[in-house]
Amino acid sequence: MRIEIWSDIACPWCYIGKRRFETALDGFAHKDDVEVEWRSYQLDPSLPYHYAGTETEYLSQAKGMPAEQVRQMFDHVTQQAAGEGLDYDFDSIVVANSFTAHRLLHLAKTHGVMSQAKEELLSGHFEKGRNIGDAEYLAEVAQTVGIDADEARRVLSTDEYTAEVKADIAEAQSLGANGVPFFVIDRKYGISGAQPPEAFAQALETAWGESQKLTVLAGAGSSADSPAPGKGGDETFREGAVCGPEGCD
């Protein structure tokens, strides 16, 4: 089973959603048969690579919200994060454009450590006050997850993986995602938001059950007059001889 997760490193609910999904996946009987792929998304592509103000000032200006209302929102999100074992510190957040960090994630994907890099970046941004727009910090993250820091610096000094990040964002839009986190299971089920673990658990069970159902191309109810389509459209399956409880054909 394949699960794609669109999220932004600068999205506080994305980190909370990651934890809740991981809780559900950890309790899923078939977790070893689940492939998780992180996909890129940006909540604010227009954000400069470094914003001089605080997170409160940025959201207050960007959303036209009073600063006190923004702080109340932060308090609520911080409490929700704490419930998942996360220690958010909105006062120390460095407001920065996340695009370059998403390019690093695609580099990490080629090394098979995308999930580890995602965790490092989210923790760095929301818990440790690190600058996700700074190439030196990103090189540090790369080294932490086993990628040569010089390789990361070289990649980030070019436009490598820019197309991949843009393709992820475009695909999210084509799927109808109007916010993140956005979870897509086997391209059949979409889940929006940082749902409770039990909701993710139910979705995993439902999707797994559907994936195990067999589509019968021929058998009970079919006949030579009503053949089922065959592979490639140049063959047909017709009623075959079978044995059942009452005997054989």
Task: Describe what this molecule looks like in 3D.
Residues 3-204 form the DSBA-like thioredoxin domain. Residues 219-229 have a biased composition (Low complexity). Keywords: Isomerase. Residues 219-249 are annotated as: Disordered. The protein is of the alpha+beta class and 249 residues long. The chain folds into 2 domains: 2-209, Glutaredoxin (3-Layer(aba) Sandwich), CATH 3.40.30.10; 215-249, no CATH class. It is 45% helix and 11% strand. It has 9 helices and 8 strands. The protein has a 4-stranded mixed sheet with strand order 2-1-3-4. A hairpin with a 3-residue loop joins strand 3 (182-185) and strand 4.
Strand content: 5-15%
Helix % is: 40-55%
Question: Spans with pLDDT under 50 lasting ≥5 residues?
Answer: 220-231
CATH class of the largest domain: Alpha Beta
- Give me the side-by-side strand order of the main sheet: 2-1-3-4
- For the record, the count of structural domains works out to 2
The number of distinct helices, counting runs of at least 4 residues, comes to: 9
InterPro entries: DSBA-like_thioredoxin_dom (IPR001853), Thioredoxin-like_sf (IPR036249)
Keywords: Isomerase
GO molecular function: isomerase activity; oxidoreductase activity
Pfam families: DSBA (PF01323)
